[in-house]
Write a structure and sequence with these properties.
Elements lengths: L1 E2 L6 E2 L1 E3 L5 E3 L9 H14 L5 H12 L18
Amino acid sequence: MTREAGSGGRRWTGVGADGTRGAAEADVGYATPEEAAAHAGAFLKGHARVDGTATRREADDLSGAEDRVGDEDPWGRGARE
């Protein structure tokens, strides 16, 4: 979150867990940091990744699959690819 020098309004930018980038609209400056945080939080919630398959693949790429216990989706939601 940033504070605009001219207007004193707050803005936000962020990157969701799914890689989507977002920001406050160009013509919006929120009056309080709480308001900006609420809008940023709504964006992040909408872009939270709960894709067990992609997350497991990233973990395997990082640390290998030799110690993996199972292939089940811990969230029970199935793969979304």
